[in-house]
Amino acid sequence: MADKSQKGTPTNHWQVTRRCLAILNHLLQGPAKKGALLTAVYAVEGKDAYGSQTGKPLNRRFEEDKKRLRVHLGIDVRYDKRVGGYLIAGWERPLLNLPNADIQTLAYLADTFQPDAPKMTEVHQLINRLVSWLPPERQQLLQKIAGQQPTADLRLRDSEEIAPDVWEKLLEAWQAKQELQFDYLSSQHEDGILRQHHIQPWDLDFTDRGHWRLRGFCLFNDGPNGPWSPRDYFNYRVSRIVSGSVEILSKKLPPIRPLGKPRQVIFELAPAIARFGVSQRKELIGETKISTQENGWTRIESKTHDVFDLARNLLYYGDNCRVLGGDQLLREVKTLISNLELIYRDSS
């Protein structure tokens, strides 16, 4: 991994290795600009880490270190304009290993912080990041301990039939944290035409409605209206994934979940519901602002990736809840109420 700081003078192999490790160590914190990465290198190796190079020669040395990480360590460092900095786009070898006791602790946290637990999203993001760096066999151990490794028998829990090949490949991709591609038949499209989805599979759970649900970050969608890139979270009913269409792709999931396109939500709960506090809703993400209004109602302001489920779950409260915004949630609730009114008006 040696380079030359001056003509004819090879730089110490270990210094080059330490520079590369300093870049890697800083990127494990998250995306970073080039200046921050160079500062991290200088903090470890001192101001002479790259000799006296500046400008284009320094940039060239930085690019050479990125190449060394890719060629010798299998770590692909790339600039991503969406985040405005460099990030770890992929890795061929594990970045972390943990003793069994720590694996058991991660499994305990995964089981303890269920959707209704405080800071659930943040805790699972931490767990997912650490697990993504583990060797595959250690990931499988954690999933087994945490009860996250469903068997073929659990497929039969669904009230609709799930094709065995769909279940097998979906589990394999989800456990290995690899991207997936499949054809999907959605009940929301009246034309009955299949849509192809290319996704990052993040969550697999069994819903209270009796179905296995895959929550994925959709990178690409192709259908009768042509291809597009949603780059947002979708819920997929596993039974609607078409047999024979599932393909496990080689690209790994990123260590940090994509932000997606969170929608603003504002709703109020009557005193009869919120008098003794507000339950945490699994559909809400990020910071939630809760305030008491002059009329005694409690206002909740937050964001969500799941307008569909949130709208239907808020209707559960009946006239003890009123939705004020954002636009998509309010439109969804109004549509549901209007459709219900039509049904009951016609039946009266």
TrEMBL record:
Alphabetical list of PROSITE patterns matching this protein: WYL
Protein name, UniProt field: Uncharacterized protein
